[in-house]
Amino acid sequence: MTLRPLRPRRSGLPGRRSAIFLPSLVLGATLGAGCGDNSSTPGVESLPCDTPTTAVYRIDRVDVPTDSTEASAFGSDLDGDGTVDNQVGNIMSAVLQIYGDRPLLAQWQAQMAARLAGPLDWSIRIDSCPGGEAHAWLVDGDAADATDAMLPAVGHFDATGLAADGGEAILPLGALADFTGRADAGWHPAAAATFALAVDDTDGDDALDGRLALAIAPDYRPVIARAFALFIQDLYDDGETTWGQDVDADGDGQITVDELLADRDFGWLTTADLDADGDGAGESLSMGVVIHATRVAP
Fold first, then answer.
1. What per-residue confidence (pLDDT) applies to 105?
2. Are the C-beta atoms of residues 72 and 211 closer than 8 Å to each other?
3. What is the pLDDT of residues 91-112, one digit of tens each?
4. What is the tally of structural domains in the chain?
């Protein structure tokens, strides 16, 4: 199997402030109800009210692109160059098309739905003022106090929905890259978090629905590889050897993470498309998905 880089590298992530990655921190949030803390965060203007109201929405559905048209529709221009960025969407749609004779989309949807309905608490915390001014964070709901160290996305939140961008975030990258349901959640930091979510009251729930885009922080490849190695192993065991034989460098029938990281096709498939630190070399990976999240607090 021969793959090529799906998108050229971009340079710079302009915005109201510089992107700051926090790969060494365990990120999350205290997901309390009621009034939020409006303490000053370095580099971010405080909300114009003394006691912003805090709302928490737990993500209960994630939709990934199945083709290039959806990859473009789900993505956002994260680096300000006028072009939609969604490398993860391109990766997912490419894998689904390469193995189109297998029910991979159904497998991915099933494992993700089970995680989100169970132990995987991926949540959006929103602090907002009566005028709609808002800070938003994408967090691991089982962690604590990490919003103190995270730049929020800044924007507007009202009865119509949430529109905010520019924040730091954390995402379960391992789960998002998993087709087997056996990979770790693989929590990993991100920047340039962009929310374009509308209120969804079709079922009587207080919910949000729409696009979520991120720039996944450096060192993402090992996280993706740990999930993908399980997937390639399953294909290999099932007689699909096209990719497995290339990855299995020592021919022992076992796909290891190190073998996958050394594989040329995996390297091409996961090529960074964003230069978040402005050094002229891509190191971050863009992602755009559609999510549904239901309010859980207050």
1. 96
2. no
3. 999 999 999 999 999 999 999 9
4. 2
Question: Same structural domain for residues 56 and 202?
Answer: yes
51, 149, 169 from 262: Cα distances, Å: 51, 34, 28
The whole-model pTM stands at 0.86
**What was the pLDDT predicted at 47?**
96
Burial category of 297 from C-beta neighbours within 10 Å (exposed 0-12, middle 13-18, buried 19 and up):
middle
Contact present, 212 and 288 (Cβ < 8 Å): yes
Residue closest to 112 by CA, chosen among 92, 130, 90, 128: 92
pLDDT digits (tens, 9 = 90+) for 64-101: 999 999 999 999 999 988 999 999 999 999 999 999 99
Task: Domain of residue 227: give its range.
Answer: 221-269
Q: Could you give the CA distance from residue 109 to residue 62 in angstroms, rounded to a whole number?
A: 8
Locus of tokens 């720039």: 215
Q: Supply the DSSP symbol for 254.
A: -
Percent helix, strand, coil in the chain (nearest 5)?
Answer: 25, 30, 45
Please identify which residue in the block is written with the tokens 């930091």: 189
